[in-house]
Amino acid sequence: MDWIVKVADGFMGLFKTGGEVFLSWMTGIVPFVLMLLVAMNAVTSLIGEDRINRFAEKGGKNIFFRYLILPFIATFTLGNPMSISMGKFLPEFYKPGWVAVTMQANHTSNGVFPHINPGELFVWLGIASGITALGLNLMDLAIRYMLVGLVMNFIGGWVTDFMTSYVSKQQGVKLSKVMSKS
């Protein structure tokens, strides 16, 4: 009978731990992301959503701007996960590619700019401790990781555009490459 009690205690402990994690999110990341959303919406209101949409539409037409420059700016200024929200200014067709590139960019720039993705900084610090123990320059690795990441993120966005085109044709869904006037 002891094993039943241990299983029940372990099962309830799982939910207790889940509740503690949820509460830490409610007092940590949720208010942080909420304030970033408020700030982004305030800046959008000040600049004007029409201007931002026109800028994104023009920039969205250029694959290099869309998948190299804009994701870097978004991740550097907004960090993870808020940088994904910048995709709301892109036409529907490019949103899957935007999400792919931005999620990857949140990781590949973390060694040089740890504020981008502090929740996963422990991964970089683990790698950093090994590199440091070998007596190698950590910033060399961080810069190379970021540069390779920029190229691979760009390729990921480009490939996602091909996949989006293929799947939308297959499913008979028309996705606009132009911002709608709403």
Oligomer: single chain
| Rg, alpha carbons | 21 Å
Strand count, sense and closure of the main sheet?
Answer: none
Low-pLDDT stretches? none
Helix content: over 70%
Distance between the termini: 64 Å
Q: What is the 3D form?
A: globular
Structural class: mainly alpha
List the total number of helices: 7
Q: How many strand elements?
A: 0
Structure notes:
The structure is a single chain. The chain is mostly helical and 182 residues long. It has helices at 2-27, 29-47, 49-61, 63-78, 95-108, 121-133, 138-171. The model has no long low-confidence stretch (mean pLDDT 85).
Quick structural overview:
The chain contains seven helices and no strands. The protein is mainly α and 182 residues long.
Keyword list:
74% helix; 0% strand; single chain; 182 residues; mainly alpha
Structural topology:
Elements (H helix, E strand, L loop, with lengths): L1 H26 L1 H19 L1 H13 L1 H16 L16 H14 L12 H13 L4 H34 L11
